[in-house]
């Protein structure tokens, strides 16, 4: 009830914001469609789905010019599922992003709740995969144990040097930082992004130290990721490559590869992509979890198409297939074994 009252008061205040400061805006998008699919050993399903190609969301953002080359800005963003109106994560009011930024000659500093460098949101720099972290089984995050969104975080971005920017993110507690430092799980991310001469690429190194986090009643070791990817624009046709290596002592290590392409087609934009992921579990974890297989793999192919009815409204369609092997051969999930097709609309406001 308190949440509803709070959100209502925020929306009611937007009208006064528009008069008090013209640089404060309400924005968002709604993605909703129908998706059919069938996983191995499961019945076929037909669902109305929200956020299949891009999470439905709404937010408030604004800027203030402080003078002398300095600017303050903020973003408050909440996700929801358009098919039932529910919020998508957590119990807060702005669970997707809650950031205050300071821009200046030194670069940009942002503080608050934000996405990890290799995930999504305005602070992320993931490149090289046409489907990003959305589009069903073709999402790069499927199978990859990504770091998601971070609480208590600070992000720094350097000025651009001939198309190159350097990025760093630190979280003092990915969920909470109210315990002593050694009991909070911390995130460290470092990356470089290059956008120039038809190239859009990045390389990212990420660590979550997992302090205070248990797995099968044992303390977790640190989880490491390195991700590199990029695209090249050939007159509108953008092929891309992406690779990720992830490892966690006493748990697993894995390799993920992806090749995709985005190209104009019939007034819209087509996406094609194929990815392969191979995971090898540590013998220690296999014994603890009583796994029958030390290895697991999955390959996925997907095709998507977006047609713009207007500058703000797109028709989208998708078809994908996934096939798991070894430890994932019987996984009853369309992201690992099975097919799915979908059709819907995405409207931005």
Helix and strand topology:
Elements: H1 2-20, E1 24-39, E2 45-50, E3 57-67, E4 70-79, E5 97-104, E6 107-115, E7 149-157, E8 164-171, E9 187-196, E10 199-208, E11 214-215, E12 218-219, E13 223-232, E14 238-248, E15 252-265, E16 268-281, H2 283-289, E17 295-308, E18 313-326, E19 338-348
Antiparallel strand pairs: 1-2, 1-3, 1-19, 3-4, 4-5, 5-6, 6-7, 7-8, 8-9, 9-10, 10-13, 11-12, 13-14, 14-15, 15-16, 16-17, 17-18, 18-19
Written description of the protein model:
It is a single chain. The protein is mainly β and 349 residues long. It has helices at 2-20, 283-289; strands at 24-39, 45-50, 57-67, 70-79, 97-104, 107-115, 149-157, 164-171, 187-196, 199-208, 214-215, 218-219, 223-232, 238-248, 252-265, 268-281, 295-308, 313-326, 338-348. The strands form two sheets. Strands 1-3-4-5-6-7-8-9-10-13-14-15-16-17-18-19 form a 16-stranded antiparallel barrel. The chain starts with a helix and ends with a strand. Residues 1-5 and 14-21 have low confidence and may be disordered.
């Amino acid at each position: 009830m308190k949440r509803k009252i709070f959100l209502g008061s925020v929306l009611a205040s937007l009208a006064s914001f528009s008069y008090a400061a013209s640089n404060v805006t309400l924005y968002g998008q709604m993605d909703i469609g129908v998706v059919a699919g069938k996983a191995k050993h499961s019945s076929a399903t037909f669902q109305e789905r929200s956020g299949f190609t891009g999470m439905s969301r709404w937010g408030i953002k604004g800027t203030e010019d402080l003078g002398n080359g300095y600017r303050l800005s903020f973003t408050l963003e909440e996700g929801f599922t358009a098919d039932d109106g529910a919020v998508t994560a957590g119990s807060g009011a702005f669970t997707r992003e809650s950031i205050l930024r300071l821009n200046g000659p030194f670069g940009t500093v942002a503080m608050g709740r934000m996405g990890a460098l290799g995930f999504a949101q305005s602070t992320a720099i993931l490149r090289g995969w046409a489907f990003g972290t959305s589009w069903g089984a073709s999402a790069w995050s499927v199978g990859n144990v990504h770091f998601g969104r971070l609480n208590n975080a600070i992000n720094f971005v350097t000025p651009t040097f001939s198309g190159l920017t350097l990025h760093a993110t630190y979280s003092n507690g990915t969920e909470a930082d109210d315990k002593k430092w050694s009991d909070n799980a911390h995130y460290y991310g470092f990356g470089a992004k290059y956008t120039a001469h038809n190239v859009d690429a990045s390389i990212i190194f990420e660590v979550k130290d997992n302090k205070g986090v248990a797995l099968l009643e044992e303390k977790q070791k640190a989880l490491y990721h390195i991700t590199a990817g990029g695209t090249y624009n050939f007159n509108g046709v953008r092929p891309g490559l992406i690779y990720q290596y992830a490892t966690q002592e006493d748990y697993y290590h894995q390799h993920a590869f992806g090749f995709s392409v985005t190209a104009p087609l019939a007034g819209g934009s087509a996406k094609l992509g194929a990815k392969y992921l191979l995971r090898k579990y540590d013998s220690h974890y296999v014994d603890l979890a009583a796994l029958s297989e030390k290895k697991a793999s999955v390959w996925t192919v997907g095709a998507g198409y977006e047609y713009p009815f207007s500058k703000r409204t797109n028709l989208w369609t998708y078809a994908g297939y996934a096939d798991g092997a070894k430890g994932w051969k019987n996984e009853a999930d369309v992201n690992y074994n099975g097919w799915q097709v979908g059709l819907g609309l995405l409207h931005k406001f």
